[in-house]
Design goal:
The complex is a heterodimer.
Chain A: E1 2-5, H1 14-21, E2 27-30, H2 45-51, E3 56-60, H3 61-66, E4 79-81, H4 83-92, E5 96-99
Parallel strand pairs in A: 1-2, 1-5, 2-3, 3-4
Chain B: E1 6-11, H1 20-33, E2 37-42, E3 79-82, H2 83-88, E4 100-102, E5 110-112, E6 114-117, H3 119-127, E7 131-134
Parallel strand pairs in B: 1-2, 1-7, 2-3, 3-6
Antiparallel strand pairs in B: 4-5
Classes of the chains: A alpha/beta, B alpha/beta.
Chain lengths: 100, 135
């Protein structure tokens, strides 16, 4: 299953809840303010690192760029995808769950 | 005969501070009207939607909590409430409305719709669905 999260984890608990309910091998794509969740050395980065051991985490390139987040600031292991990559994730997973 | 899909409506927001809860409830009823296999999950602040004794009259907002009682008539008979979310908010099952449905497939008895489930179980239930709609 593909999970998308579009809220900052420092404002809403959407990402935390997504991480605690997604199963192993899930794809998790952070979009819009959700990309703030992938910044390293944050209060959230430990949860991201833990999730990366059995799930894949992606951020949408245009959303990190818009927010001035350089790829070097991301937790190691988080992958960057463009809109085409977003479409591929949506197509390669049988279902999508959007955490709001 | 069209295919029946398994729908889960995941509710994560408290009832009056935003429109999520009311809209979620309306969309469940639409899904049920199209004879889909619908269930609901209540996690995080979503558990506040089911608290009994809601009275929004002084706030001028519509109290839509009685609508949850109609879910059984629409054959929405499974309301999964996350145990950890209740505990984190100082709530227990006794703080929730008593929601029931009439079991047409078995003995026509009134049975409870609310099931308290653990977080890990809910993750598994989500994986069983064909469609997940979050509110």
């Amino acid at each position: 299953m593909l999970h998308t999260v579009n809220k900052s984890p420092f404002d809403k608990n959407s990402l935390k809840t997504c991480l605690s309910h997604s199963l192993k091998d899930s794809d998790i794509l952070l979009i819009e303010d959700g990309v703030y969740g992938a910044i390293k050395d944050s209060a959230m980065s430990g949860d991201i690192e833990k999730a990366l051991t059995d799930r894949k985490i992606y951020v949408l390139e245009s959303d990190i760029k818009a927010r001035g987040i350089d790829s070097s600031r991301l937790v190691q292991g988080v992958a960057i995808v463009d809109y085409g990559g977003f479409v591929e994730l949506a197509a390669s997973n049988d279902r999508v769950q959007s955490w709001l | 005969m069209s295919t029946v899909k398994k729908f889960m409506y995941v509710n994560r927001h408290a009832p009056y501070g935003s429109i999520y809860a009311l809209e979620g409830l309306e969309v469940v009823l639409i899904g049920a009207a199209f004879d889909q296999d619908c269930c609901m999950a209540f996690i995080d602040d979503g558990v506040f939607q089911l608290v009994k004794g809601q009275d929004s009259s002084a706030s001028g907002m519509k109290n839509f909590s009685p609508t949850y009682r109609a879910l059984g008539d629409y054959e929405v008979t499974r309301l999964y409430v996350e145990k950890e979310s209740l505990m984190e908010r100082g709530l227990t099952k006794s703080d929730l409305m008593e929601l029931t449905y009439e079991d047409e497939d078995d003995d026509w008895a009134e049975k409870p719709s609310i099931q308290i489930v653990e977080r890990s179980e809910l993750g598994r239930l989500m994986e069983e669905q064909d469609v997940l709609l979050n509110f």
